[in-house]
Amino acid sequence: MKVPVNVTVNGTPRAAEVEPRTLLVYFLRDTLGMTGTHIGCQTGQCGACTVLLDGEAVKSCMVLAVQAEGREVTSIEGLAPAGTLHPVQQAFWEEHGLQCGYCTPGMVLAAHALLQENPDPDEAAVRHALEGNLCRCTGYQNVVASVRTAAAKLASGAEPEPVITR
Amino acid sequence: MNPAPFEYHRAGSVQEAIGLLQQFPEDAKLLAGGHSLLPVMKLRLAEPVHLIDISGVGDLRGVQEGSDGVRIGALTTHREIERDETLRQRCPLLPEIASRVGDRQTRARGTIGGALAHADPAADYPAGVVALDAELIVQGPGGERTIAATEFFLGFLTTALAPDEVLTAVRVAALPARTGVNYQKLANQASGYAVVGVAAVVTLAADGSCESARIGVTGAGASAVRATAVEEALRNRSLDEATVAAACEAADEGIDLLDDLHASADYRRRVVRGLARRAVLAAAVRAAEAWGGPGRAGLR
Protein backbone atom coordinates (compact mmCIF):
# COMPACT_ATOMS: atom_id res chain seq x y z
CA MET A 1 0.00 0.00 0.00
CA LYS A 2 1.39 3.37 -0.99
CA VAL A 3 1.50 6.30 1.37
CA PRO A 4 1.61 10.03 0.65
CA VAL A 5 4.86 11.93 1.14
CA ASN A 6 5.16 15.69 1.13
CA VAL A 7 8.69 17.03 1.13
CA THR A 8 10.13 20.38 0.15
CA VAL A 9 13.05 19.63 -2.15
CA ASN A 10 15.40 22.49 -2.98
CA GLY A 11 12.71 24.97 -2.06
CA THR A 12 9.93 23.36 -4.10
CA PRO A 13 7.13 21.44 -2.37
CA ARG A 14 6.89 17.93 -3.84
CA ALA A 15 4.15 15.40 -3.19
CA ALA A 16 4.06 11.75 -4.23
CA GLU A 17 2.65 8.39 -3.24
CA VAL A 18 5.37 5.87 -2.46
CA GLU A 19 5.79 2.47 -0.94
CA PRO A 20 6.69 2.99 2.75
CA ARG A 21 9.97 1.16 2.24
CA THR A 22 11.15 3.71 -0.33
CA LEU A 23 14.45 5.18 0.75
CA LEU A 24 14.86 8.94 0.46
CA VAL A 25 17.61 8.49 -2.13
CA TYR A 26 15.26 6.49 -4.39
CA PHE A 27 12.52 9.05 -3.83
CA LEU A 28 14.88 11.75 -5.09
CA ARG A 29 16.31 9.77 -7.98
CA ASP A 30 13.43 7.59 -9.17
CA THR A 31 10.27 9.35 -8.03
CA LEU A 32 11.47 12.92 -8.66
CA GLY A 33 14.06 12.13 -11.35
CA MET A 34 16.81 14.08 -9.60
CA THR A 35 19.91 12.02 -10.16
CA GLY A 36 22.50 14.39 -8.68
CA THR A 37 22.34 12.40 -5.45
CA HIS A 38 24.48 9.33 -6.05
CA ILE A 39 24.02 5.83 -4.70
CA GLY A 40 27.25 4.29 -3.51
CA CYS A 41 27.24 1.52 -0.95
CA GLN A 42 23.59 1.63 0.17
CA THR A 43 24.73 0.51 3.60
CA GLY A 44 25.20 3.92 5.16
CA GLN A 45 28.95 3.92 4.99
CA CYS A 46 30.14 5.76 1.88
CA GLY A 47 28.27 9.05 2.12
CA ALA A 48 27.84 9.48 -1.66
CA CYS A 49 24.09 9.95 -1.10
CA THR A 50 24.50 12.70 1.50
CA VAL A 51 21.81 15.41 1.35
CA LEU A 52 20.76 18.10 3.79
CA LEU A 53 17.63 17.34 5.82
CA ASP A 54 16.48 20.54 7.50
CA GLY A 55 20.05 21.75 6.97
CA GLU A 56 21.74 18.77 8.61
CA ALA A 57 23.87 16.39 6.52
CA VAL A 58 22.33 12.91 6.42
CA LYS A 59 22.78 9.82 4.30
CA SER A 60 19.68 9.57 2.14
CA CYS A 61 20.02 5.78 1.80
CA MET A 62 19.54 5.58 5.57
CA VAL A 63 16.34 7.60 5.72
CA LEU A 64 12.92 6.46 4.56
CA ALA A 65 11.14 8.95 2.33
CA VAL A 66 8.24 8.90 4.79
CA GLN A 67 10.62 10.05 7.51
CA ALA A 68 11.23 13.24 5.53
CA GLU A 69 7.53 14.07 5.65
CA GLY A 70 7.00 17.81 6.11
CA ARG A 71 10.72 18.52 6.07
CA GLU A 72 13.17 20.29 3.76
CA VAL A 73 15.69 18.44 1.66
CA THR A 74 18.58 20.11 -0.14
CA SER A 75 20.29 18.00 -2.75
CA ILE A 76 23.31 18.95 -4.84
CA GLU A 77 20.98 20.38 -7.51
CA GLY A 78 19.69 22.91 -5.00
CA LEU A 79 22.94 24.30 -3.73
CA ALA A 80 23.26 27.02 -6.39
CA PRO A 81 21.06 28.29 -9.24
CA ALA A 82 21.32 26.32 -12.48
CA GLY A 83 24.38 27.21 -14.51
CA THR A 84 26.31 28.45 -11.50
CA LEU A 85 28.55 26.87 -8.91
CA HIS A 86 28.15 27.46 -5.19
CA PRO A 87 31.40 28.64 -3.56
CA VAL A 88 31.90 25.14 -2.13
CA GLN A 89 31.48 23.62 -5.61
CA GLN A 90 33.74 26.29 -7.09
CA ALA A 91 36.40 25.45 -4.50
CA PHE A 92 36.23 21.73 -5.39
CA TRP A 93 36.67 22.77 -9.04
CA GLU A 94 39.65 25.01 -8.36
CA GLU A 95 41.43 22.64 -5.98
CA HIS A 96 40.77 19.54 -8.07
CA GLY A 97 38.82 18.11 -5.14
CA LEU A 98 37.51 15.27 -7.28
CA GLN A 99 38.83 12.67 -9.62
CA CYS A 100 36.00 10.46 -10.90
CA GLY A 101 33.43 12.68 -9.20
CA TYR A 102 31.20 9.95 -7.88
CA CYS A 103 31.52 10.91 -4.24
CA THR A 104 31.48 14.63 -4.97
CA PRO A 105 27.80 15.53 -4.42
CA GLY A 106 27.99 13.97 -0.97
CA MET A 107 31.37 15.51 -0.22
CA VAL A 108 30.15 18.96 -1.20
CA LEU A 109 27.00 18.76 0.91
CA ALA A 110 28.84 17.35 3.93
CA ALA A 111 31.41 20.12 3.56
CA HIS A 112 28.63 22.69 3.25
CA ALA A 113 27.01 21.45 6.47
CA LEU A 114 30.36 21.66 8.26
CA LEU A 115 31.00 25.21 7.05
CA GLN A 116 27.58 26.36 8.18
CA GLU A 117 28.48 25.28 11.68
CA ASN A 118 32.21 26.01 11.68
CA PRO A 119 33.16 28.69 9.13
CA ASP A 120 36.90 28.16 9.59
CA PRO A 121 37.63 24.49 10.24
CA ASP A 122 41.23 23.36 10.52
CA GLU A 123 42.41 20.26 8.70
CA ALA A 124 41.56 17.94 11.60
CA ALA A 125 38.02 19.37 11.82
CA VAL A 126 37.53 18.88 8.07
CA ARG A 127 38.74 15.30 8.20
CA HIS A 128 36.55 14.56 11.23
CA ALA A 129 33.46 16.05 9.60
CA LEU A 130 34.04 14.13 6.34
CA GLU A 131 34.73 10.83 8.10
CA GLY A 132 31.47 9.49 6.69
CA ASN A 133 32.33 10.30 3.09
CA LEU A 134 34.52 7.88 1.22
CA CYS A 135 36.47 8.69 -1.94
CA ARG A 136 37.54 5.52 -3.72
CA CYS A 137 39.98 7.52 -5.83
CA THR A 138 41.49 8.40 -2.44
CA GLY A 139 41.77 12.06 -3.30
CA TYR A 140 41.36 13.20 0.26
CA GLN A 141 44.22 15.71 0.24
CA ASN A 142 42.54 17.80 -2.41
CA VAL A 143 39.15 17.40 -0.78
CA VAL A 144 40.54 18.90 2.41
CA ALA A 145 42.17 21.70 0.41
CA SER A 146 38.83 22.32 -1.32
CA VAL A 147 36.97 22.69 1.95
CA ARG A 148 39.58 25.10 3.31
CA THR A 149 39.38 27.13 0.10
CA ALA A 150 35.59 27.07 0.30
CA ALA A 151 35.81 28.42 3.84
CA ALA A 152 37.95 31.31 2.63
CA LYS A 153 35.56 32.01 -0.24
CA LEU A 154 32.53 32.04 2.02
CA ALA A 155 34.34 34.24 4.56
CA SER A 156 34.97 36.80 1.84
CA GLY A 157 31.29 36.77 0.90
CA ALA A 158 31.64 34.84 -2.36
CA GLU A 159 28.49 34.39 -4.45
CA PRO A 160 27.73 31.50 -6.85
CA GLU A 161 29.87 31.78 -9.96
CA PRO A 162 28.91 30.89 -13.55
CA VAL A 163 30.10 27.49 -14.72
CA ILE A 164 33.03 27.89 -17.08
CA THR A 165 33.14 25.38 -19.92
CA ARG A 166 35.99 25.12 -22.32
CA MET B 1 18.88 -2.53 -1.65
CA ASN B 2 15.42 -2.04 -0.19
CA PRO B 3 13.94 -3.36 3.01
CA ALA B 4 11.21 -5.97 2.61
CA PRO B 5 7.75 -4.40 2.31
CA PHE B 6 6.06 -3.36 5.53
CA GLU B 7 3.07 -1.43 6.72
CA TYR B 8 3.95 2.00 8.04
CA HIS B 9 2.34 3.52 11.13
CA ARG B 10 3.07 6.97 12.46
CA ALA B 11 2.58 7.11 16.23
CA GLY B 12 1.77 10.51 17.68
CA SER B 13 2.37 9.52 21.29
CA VAL B 14 3.96 6.81 23.39
CA GLN B 15 0.48 5.53 24.28
CA GLU B 16 -0.35 5.19 20.61
CA ALA B 17 2.92 3.33 19.99
CA ILE B 18 2.17 0.93 22.85
CA GLY B 19 -1.32 0.37 21.45
CA LEU B 20 0.13 -0.51 18.04
CA LEU B 21 2.71 -2.83 19.62
CA GLN B 22 -0.15 -4.62 21.39
CA GLN B 23 -2.14 -4.77 18.18
CA PHE B 24 0.74 -6.45 16.31
CA PRO B 25 2.54 -8.41 19.03
CA GLU B 26 4.50 -10.72 16.73
CA ASP B 27 5.87 -8.65 13.92
CA ALA B 28 6.15 -4.95 14.76
CA LYS B 29 9.25 -2.82 15.29
CA LEU B 30 9.63 0.73 16.52
CA LEU B 31 11.40 3.17 14.22
CA ALA B 32 13.25 6.17 15.62
CA GLY B 33 16.28 7.45 13.67
CA GLY B 34 16.47 4.13 11.85
CA HIS B 35 20.25 3.93 11.88
CA SER B 36 20.33 0.58 13.63
CA LEU B 37 17.10 -0.84 12.25
CA LEU B 38 17.21 0.14 8.57
CA PRO B 39 20.59 -1.51 7.95
CA VAL B 40 19.39 -4.86 9.29
CA MET B 41 16.12 -4.47 7.38
CA LYS B 42 18.01 -3.86 4.15
CA LEU B 43 20.01 -7.01 4.76
CA ARG B 44 16.68 -8.77 5.47
CA LEU B 45 18.00 -9.78 8.86
CA ALA B 46 14.85 -8.11 10.14
CA GLU B 47 11.57 -8.12 8.24
CA PRO B 48 8.99 -6.46 10.45
CA VAL B 49 5.51 -6.46 8.95
CA HIS B 50 4.60 -3.31 10.84
CA LEU B 51 6.92 -0.39 11.34
CA ILE B 52 5.81 2.05 14.02
CA ASP B 53 7.46 5.42 13.54
CA ILE B 54 7.85 7.19 16.90
CA SER B 55 10.24 9.84 15.60
CA GLY B 56 7.54 12.50 15.77
CA VAL B 57 6.81 12.02 19.48
CA GLY B 58 8.16 15.36 20.66
CA ASP B 59 8.31 14.70 24.39
CA LEU B 60 10.81 11.88 23.88
CA ARG B 61 13.46 14.31 22.71
CA GLY B 62 15.87 16.46 24.65
CA VAL B 63 17.93 16.62 27.82
CA GLN B 64 16.53 17.81 31.16
CA GLU B 65 18.22 18.22 34.48
CA GLY B 66 16.19 17.33 37.57
CA SER B 67 16.73 16.61 41.23
CA ASP B 68 17.40 12.94 40.45
CA GLY B 69 19.97 13.58 37.77
CA VAL B 70 19.85 14.16 34.05
CA ARG B 71 17.10 12.69 31.92
CA ILE B 72 17.84 12.11 28.24
CA GLY B 73 14.85 11.51 26.00
CA ALA B 74 15.11 8.33 23.95
CA LEU B 75 14.83 10.24 20.66
CA THR B 76 17.75 12.55 21.44
CA THR B 77 20.27 12.16 18.62
CA HIS B 78 23.94 11.42 19.06
CA ARG B 79 24.77 14.87 17.74
CA GLU B 80 22.46 16.51 20.24
CA ILE B 81 24.07 14.52 23.05
CA GLU B 82 27.55 15.32 21.75
CA ARG B 83 26.84 19.04 21.99
CA ASP B 84 24.49 19.25 24.96
CA GLU B 85 25.84 21.69 27.55
CA THR B 86 24.02 20.11 30.52
CA LEU B 87 25.47 16.71 29.73
CA ARG B 88 28.91 18.12 29.08
CA GLN B 89 28.83 19.59 32.57
CA ARG B 90 27.02 16.85 34.50
CA CYS B 91 27.79 13.69 32.59
CA PRO B 92 30.58 14.25 30.05
CA LEU B 93 30.96 10.53 29.39
CA LEU B 94 27.86 10.38 27.20
CA PRO B 95 28.88 13.32 24.97
CA GLU B 96 32.34 11.76 24.68
CA ILE B 97 30.84 8.45 23.62
CA ALA B 98 28.33 10.12 21.28
CA SER B 99 31.17 11.88 19.48
CA ARG B 100 32.68 8.48 18.68
CA VAL B 101 29.51 6.89 17.25
CA GLY B 102 29.62 6.31 13.50
CA ASP B 103 30.20 9.46 11.48
CA ARG B 104 28.69 12.93 11.41
CA GLN B 105 25.72 11.99 9.23
CA THR B 106 24.99 8.95 11.38
CA ARG B 107 25.12 11.05 14.52
CA ALA B 108 22.63 13.48 13.04
CA ARG B 109 19.95 10.78 12.75
CA GLY B 110 20.74 7.99 15.18
CA THR B 111 19.18 8.19 18.65
CA ILE B 112 20.37 7.02 22.06
CA GLY B 113 17.12 5.14 22.66
CA GLY B 114 17.32 3.39 19.31
CA ALA B 115 20.92 2.38 19.83
CA LEU B 116 20.23 1.02 23.33
CA ALA B 117 17.05 -0.83 22.40
CA HIS B 118 18.75 -2.39 19.37
CA ALA B 119 21.52 -3.64 21.67
CA ASP B 120 24.10 -4.29 19.00
CA PRO B 121 27.03 -6.03 20.72
CA ALA B 122 29.39 -3.50 19.09
CA ALA B 123 27.40 -0.35 19.93
CA ASP B 124 29.15 2.37 21.94
CA TYR B 125 26.54 3.65 24.43
CA PRO B 126 26.04 0.33 26.26
CA ALA B 127 29.56 0.59 27.73
CA GLY B 128 28.70 4.06 29.02
CA VAL B 129 25.29 3.39 30.51
CA VAL B 130 26.46 0.32 32.40
CA ALA B 131 29.53 2.19 33.71
CA LEU B 132 27.32 5.09 34.80
CA ASP B 133 24.76 2.83 36.48
CA ALA B 134 22.20 4.60 34.34
CA GLU B 135 18.52 3.81 34.60
CA LEU B 136 16.46 3.11 31.53
CA ILE B 137 12.90 4.30 31.77
CA VAL B 138 10.39 2.29 29.82
CA GLN B 139 6.68 2.61 29.34
CA GLY B 140 4.26 -0.23 28.74
CA PRO B 141 0.52 -0.90 28.94
CA GLY B 142 0.74 -1.02 32.74
CA GLY B 143 2.62 2.24 33.11
CA GLU B 144 6.23 3.18 33.64
CA ARG B 145 9.07 1.11 35.07
CA THR B 146 12.78 1.54 35.46
CA ILE B 147 15.43 -0.97 34.43
CA ALA B 148 19.02 -0.71 35.64
CA ALA B 149 21.36 -0.48 32.66
CA THR B 150 23.36 -3.37 34.08
CA GLU B 151 20.21 -5.53 33.82
CA PHE B 152 19.03 -4.25 30.44
CA PHE B 153 21.33 -6.06 28.02
CA LEU B 154 20.53 -9.75 28.02
CA GLY B 155 22.50 -10.93 25.01
CA PHE B 156 22.99 -10.51 21.27
CA LEU B 157 20.41 -7.88 20.14
CA THR B 158 18.34 -8.79 23.18
CA THR B 159 17.18 -6.53 26.00
CA ALA B 160 14.89 -6.66 29.02
CA LEU B 161 12.27 -4.67 27.10
CA ALA B 162 8.93 -6.47 26.80
CA PRO B 163 7.46 -6.64 23.28
CA ASP B 164 4.86 -3.99 24.15
CA GLU B 165 7.20 -1.60 25.95
CA VAL B 166 8.82 1.58 24.67
CA LEU B 167 12.15 2.87 25.95
CA THR B 168 11.36 6.51 26.69
CA ALA B 169 14.41 7.93 28.48
CA VAL B 170 17.79 7.32 30.05
CA ARG B 171 18.43 8.74 33.51
CA VAL B 172 21.95 9.30 34.79
CA ALA B 173 22.92 10.64 38.20
CA ALA B 174 25.20 13.66 38.29
CA LEU B 175 28.78 12.49 38.79
CA PRO B 176 30.15 12.63 42.35
CA ALA B 177 33.01 14.98 43.20
CA ARG B 178 36.56 13.96 42.30
CA THR B 179 35.30 11.90 39.37
CA GLY B 180 36.73 11.59 35.88
CA VAL B 181 35.46 9.68 32.87
CA ASN B 182 36.90 8.34 29.64
CA TYR B 183 35.87 6.23 26.67
CA GLN B 184 38.37 4.23 24.66
CA LYS B 185 37.40 2.58 21.42
CA LEU B 186 38.99 0.50 18.75
CA ALA B 187 36.72 1.21 15.80
CA ASN B 188 36.21 -1.12 12.88
CA GLN B 189 37.66 0.83 9.99
CA ALA B 190 34.79 0.09 7.63
CA SER B 191 31.74 0.36 9.83
CA GLY B 192 32.90 2.57 12.68
CA TYR B 193 31.41 0.12 15.17
CA ALA B 194 33.47 -0.77 18.23
CA VAL B 195 35.56 -3.89 17.87
CA VAL B 196 35.97 -3.19 21.56
CA GLY B 197 34.99 -0.15 23.61
CA VAL B 198 35.71 0.55 27.27
CA ALA B 199 34.13 3.30 29.36
CA ALA B 200 35.58 4.21 32.76
CA VAL B 201 34.13 6.29 35.59
CA VAL B 202 36.77 6.81 38.27
CA THR B 203 36.15 8.50 41.62
CA LEU B 204 39.12 9.36 43.79
CA ALA B 205 39.13 9.34 47.59
CA ALA B 206 40.30 12.40 49.54
CA ASP B 207 43.81 10.92 49.74
CA GLY B 208 43.96 10.50 45.97
CA SER B 209 43.51 6.73 45.94
CA CYS B 210 40.75 5.01 44.02
CA GLU B 211 37.43 5.23 45.84
CA SER B 212 35.60 3.51 43.03
CA ALA B 213 36.16 2.59 39.41
CA ARG B 214 33.22 1.64 37.26
CA ILE B 215 34.17 0.06 33.96
CA GLY B 216 31.83 -0.83 31.11
CA VAL B 217 32.93 -3.04 28.24
CA THR B 218 31.23 -3.27 24.86
CA GLY B 219 32.10 -5.17 21.70
CA ALA B 220 33.97 -7.92 23.48
CA GLY B 221 31.07 -10.27 24.14
CA ALA B 222 27.44 -10.60 23.11
CA SER B 223 26.42 -7.66 25.26
CA ALA B 224 27.91 -4.90 27.40
CA VAL B 225 29.04 -5.80 30.91
CA ARG B 226 30.87 -4.30 33.85
CA ALA B 227 34.47 -5.41 34.41
CA THR B 228 33.82 -6.09 38.09
CA ALA B 229 37.08 -7.95 38.68
CA VAL B 230 39.04 -4.85 37.64
CA GLU B 231 36.78 -2.59 39.68
CA GLU B 232 37.43 -4.66 42.80
CA ALA B 233 41.16 -4.86 42.18
CA LEU B 234 41.39 -1.08 41.95
CA ARG B 235 39.38 -0.16 45.02
CA ASN B 236 41.44 1.78 47.59
CA ARG B 237 44.55 1.41 45.47
CA SER B 238 46.80 4.13 44.16
CA LEU B 239 46.09 4.49 40.44
CA ASP B 240 49.66 4.40 39.20
CA GLU B 241 50.33 2.87 35.84
CA ALA B 242 51.66 -0.47 37.12
CA THR B 243 48.71 -1.02 39.47
CA VAL B 244 46.17 -0.16 36.80
CA ALA B 245 47.89 -2.31 34.18
CA ALA B 246 47.99 -5.28 36.55
CA ALA B 247 44.34 -4.88 37.52
CA CYS B 248 43.22 -4.57 33.89
CA GLU B 249 44.60 -8.01 33.10
CA ALA B 250 41.23 -9.14 34.48
CA ALA B 251 39.20 -6.88 32.15
CA ASP B 252 37.94 -9.80 30.07
CA GLU B 253 37.12 -11.98 33.07
CA GLY B 254 33.67 -13.49 32.76
CA ILE B 255 33.24 -12.37 29.16
CA ASP B 256 32.61 -15.04 26.54
CA LEU B 257 34.76 -13.27 23.95
CA LEU B 258 33.41 -12.96 20.43
CA ASP B 259 35.51 -14.56 17.75
CA ASP B 260 34.50 -13.32 14.30
CA LEU B 261 35.83 -11.86 11.07
CA HIS B 262 36.44 -8.51 12.75
CA ALA B 263 38.70 -9.85 15.48
CA SER B 264 39.68 -13.14 17.02
CA ALA B 265 38.84 -13.83 20.66
CA ASP B 266 42.51 -13.66 21.55
CA TYR B 267 42.92 -10.28 19.89
CA ARG B 268 39.82 -8.96 21.64
CA ARG B 269 41.24 -10.15 24.97
CA ARG B 270 44.37 -8.07 24.45
CA VAL B 271 42.42 -5.07 23.24
CA VAL B 272 39.96 -5.15 26.16
CA ARG B 273 42.81 -5.20 28.63
CA GLY B 274 44.73 -2.45 26.87
CA LEU B 275 41.74 -0.17 26.41
CA ALA B 276 40.66 -0.72 30.03
CA ARG B 277 44.09 0.37 31.20
CA ARG B 278 44.02 3.48 29.02
CA ALA B 279 40.45 4.35 30.01
CA VAL B 280 41.07 4.01 33.75
CA LEU B 281 44.30 6.01 33.62
CA ALA B 282 42.75 8.77 31.51
CA ALA B 283 39.68 8.94 33.75
CA ALA B 284 41.90 9.09 36.85
CA VAL B 285 43.94 11.95 35.41
CA ARG B 286 40.75 13.85 34.59
CA ALA B 287 39.38 13.21 38.07
CA ALA B 288 42.55 14.58 39.61
CA GLU B 289 42.69 17.56 37.26
CA ALA B 290 39.09 18.53 37.88
CA TRP B 291 39.68 18.28 41.58
CA GLY B 292 43.19 19.63 41.95
CA GLY B 293 43.74 17.48 45.05
CA PRO B 294 46.57 15.14 46.01
CA GLY B 295 45.57 12.56 43.43
CA ARG B 296 47.05 14.60 40.67
CA ALA B 297 50.58 14.50 41.98
CA GLY B 298 50.28 10.80 42.71
CA LEU B 299 49.31 10.12 39.14
CA ARG B 300 52.26 11.80 37.59
Within CATH, the superfamily of the largest domain in chain A carries the name [2Fe-2S]-binding domain
Tell me about the biggest sheet of chain A? 5 strands, mixed
Instruction: Indicate the overall shape of chain A.
Output: globular
Helix content of chain B: 25-40%
Give the second-level CATH assignment, the architecture of the largest domain in chain A: Orthogonal Bundle
Mean pLDDT of chain A: 95
CATH class of the largest domain in chain B: Alpha Beta
Q: Globular, elongated, flat, extended or rod-shaped: what is the shape of chain B? A: globular
How are strands sequenced across the largest beta sheet of chain B? 4-5-10-6-7
Number of H- or I-type helical stretches of chain A: 5
Strand order of the largest sheet of chain A: 2-1-5-3-4
The greatest interface between two protein chains, and residues involved on each side, is: A-B, 34 and 29 residues
Strand content of chain A: 15-25%
Distance between the termini of chain B: 53 Å
Q: What's the main sheet of chain B like? A: 5 strands, antiparallel
If you had to describe this structure to a student in words, what would you say it looks like?
The complex is a heterodimer of chains A (166) and B (300). In chain A, 32% of the residues lie in helices and 17% in strands. Chain A has helices at 24-31, 87-94, 104-117, 123-129, 140-155; strands at 3-9, 12-18, 50-53, 56-59, 72-74, 84-85, 161-162. The longest helix of chain A is centred in the C-terminal third of the chain and has 16 residues, at 140-155. With 166 residues, chain A is of the alpha+beta class. By secondary structure, chain B is α+β, with helices and mostly antiparallel strands. Chain B folds into 3 domains: 7-53, Uridine Diphospho-n-acetylenolpyruvylglucosamine Reductase, domain 2 (2-Layer Sandwich); 58-172, Uridine Diphospho-n-acetylenolpyruvylglucosamine Reductase, domain 3 (2-Layer Sandwich); 179-293, CO dehydrogenase flavoprotein, C-terminal domain (Enolase-like, domain 1). Chain B has 12 helices and 14 strands. Chain B has helices at residues 14-23, 37-42, 78-83, 85-90, 93-98, 104-109, 112-118, 125-131, 228-234, 241-247, 265-291, 294-299, and strands at 7-10, 28-31, 50-53, 63-66, 69-73, 135-140, 143-148, 153-155, 158-159, 166-172, 179-187, 194-204, 210-218, 225-226. In chain B, helix 10 (241-247) runs antiparallel to helix 11. At the A-B interface, strand 4 and helix 3 of A face strand 1, helix 2 and helix 6 of B.
